[in-house]
Amino acid sequence: MPVKDQGPLTSTDAEHANISDSAEEFEVFKKTADGVSFRDVGRFKACVLFVKVLFATGVLSLPSALLSLGAVGGAISIVAWGAFNTYAFVILGNFRLRRPHCHSIADMAEVAGGVTGKEITGFLFIVGYVLVTGSGIVGVSTALNALSHHAACTVWWSFLAMVVVIATASIRKLTHVGWLTYAGFISIYAAVLIVVIGVTRRDRPAAAPQTGPYDLGYVNINNPGFTAGMVASSTIFVSSADTSAFLPVISEMRNPKDYKKALYPCMVLATASYLAFSLVVYRWCGQWVASPSLGSAGQTIKMVSYGVALVGLIVSATLYLHVGAKYLFVRILGKSRHLQANSAVHWGTWLACTIALGALYFSLAEAIPIFNYLIALVGSLSFAPLAISIPGLLWLHDHAHYLKGSLMQKVKFLLHIGMVLLGIFILVGTTYGVIIQIMAAYADGTIGWTFSCADNSNSS
């Protein structure tokens, strides 16, 4: 039975007052349901899942973003976007606690914008996770290329990555995917540390001329121009913006009200790690930084780091594919007994979702094989509306009375209108910038023909 929307808040404390234990009956997945029990994710495992969702392929593009913005400009951007994305997800989390039938951000959009809002948001959600899983497949194929010395065509490595990711993402329950995230997080974090240590042990960057004078290209503040600046800012933004993937995790938590206890440690760890990693690599590599950045410390360290990171890259793509497929799965079977029943319909629908989306991700990864561009497109086309504009709209829906309230309430209302407009600005500006750069990359041969064997993934 669908739950009736409780309506907008009527006081500053109502948000907490309306979150009651009776909401349990309206949760998407039931604790006592016959068949598959999805609700067994504790807050520690939720925190690990959150961290692994964030600390993935996005971190590998941050040093290149600092190349465009400079060390100080990039550092400010990392901290600011980390804090902003944390606040935006608190809006989403609180909105969901008051409406426990919401499994995804599309369900929340339906509350505020009806069926039209739900379908538009659902489309953006799928597009976002098509793009971000495509970046994961590019990362895995790049790792396999590095480890094999390009012994096979890049397309075959990408195809192999797709098969592995589909197989692992087809595990139905997040709690069972959760054990993979421990290995995945340790893997990618260790690989990043290897590169950080590796670049500081060299006299000069691996990609720089190894004899004679050279220009490091390190600056504190840079003026990259509108196109490059928007792409760099979007790259930093997206590294902590895929918080819409946290919502399906909350739906599988034993106690969804504990989500903040998982969120805050996750965002602090991710932001601090991003800041330290990107600043060190940029300081030692400057304009000679590679993208993905695991190739910045020379061939030997590159092979070691990709070997260590391979599990983490696979797990990242697995989580993204799982979240996207789970959204479609719940949309298709949400009002059916097959949602939590071990039936042929249940299994057939679930596997169809993972296989179909996996094939789509593979096709996209081959069409846009340059890592930075995929990451920036994720930020502009999907996460700008999902992580900025829509949280702003949901806050306005719940706080409409602020427009007629005190001066401070009116200021808050106007600031959240600005939040909506900021998302639209990033959507338009960054998409324009990425399209211009992709067209230039095709024109100058940086990107070869689609499904060619050329390895474009290390281009910056």
UniProtKB/TrEMBL annotation:
GO terms for cellular component: membrane. It comes from the Eukaryota. The chain crosses the membrane at residues 46-66, 72-95, 123-141, 147-167, 179-199, 226-250, 262-284, 304-323, 344-364, 370-396, 417-442. InterPro entries: AA_transpt_TM. Pfam families: Aa_trans (PF01490). It is found in: Membrane. Residues 45-436 form the Amino acid transporter transmembrane domain. Keywords: Membrane, Transmembrane, Transmembrane helix. The keyword Electron transport does not apply. It is a multi-pass membrane protein. GO terms for molecular function: L-amino acid transmembrane transporter activity. PANTHER family: AMINO ACID TRANSPORTER (PTHR22950), AMINO ACID TRANSPORTER (EUROFUNG) (PTHR22950:SF697). Belongs to the amino acid/polyamine transporter 2 family. This is Amino acid transporter transmembrane domain-containing protein. It comes from Penicillium canariense.
